[in-house]
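JOB MANIFEST
job_type = single_chain_structure
chain_count = 1
residues = 170
[input]
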Amino acid sequence: MAYDHDLADRVRAVLPDGEAVSERQMFGGLTFMLGGHMLCGVVKDALVVRLGPEGADRALEQPHVRPMDFTGRPMKGMVFIDPAGLHGEALRQWIDAAAGYVRCLPPERAASRAGSGDPADGMRAAGRRRPPRLRAAAPPRLRASAPPRLRASGKLRHAGTTGRVPRGSE
């Protein structure tokens, strides 16, 4: 994974105390999640912070801040801060600003994120049963001994046929 491990350690040191923060690999780097929401992350040598649309617009007016355009299209509410903008107390201030925004978001539903990735996990947590699985009928097998032109034409349908084409089907 290509991210600055030293910056990740510095971020861990200034994360909010007393709150459950988890780490997850995302965006080709490392992200820190607070209450199930992305708080911040490290991608290559830059810090990513989630500030919300208005907070991100204000942050873009400051030096060393650029839009998060990971896919070539800016992501609303998120910005990159280059290493030159992370000296001294600046890193702590960015993390605190992101935590202030993320704390205002509604809590994530744990059932939809946890588990094996099976969509039914969320259904089970909600007390609903998975709908029965419908099986498609298997296509009929063709006899391997039938002439290739009959197999290709689709006129020979079942393994029990003799290889003859029934009358009226041509």
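[summary]
The helical segments are 5-14, 52-59, 90-103, 110-113, 119-125, 148-153.
Residues 1 and 29 are 6 Å apart (CA to CA).
exit_status = 0
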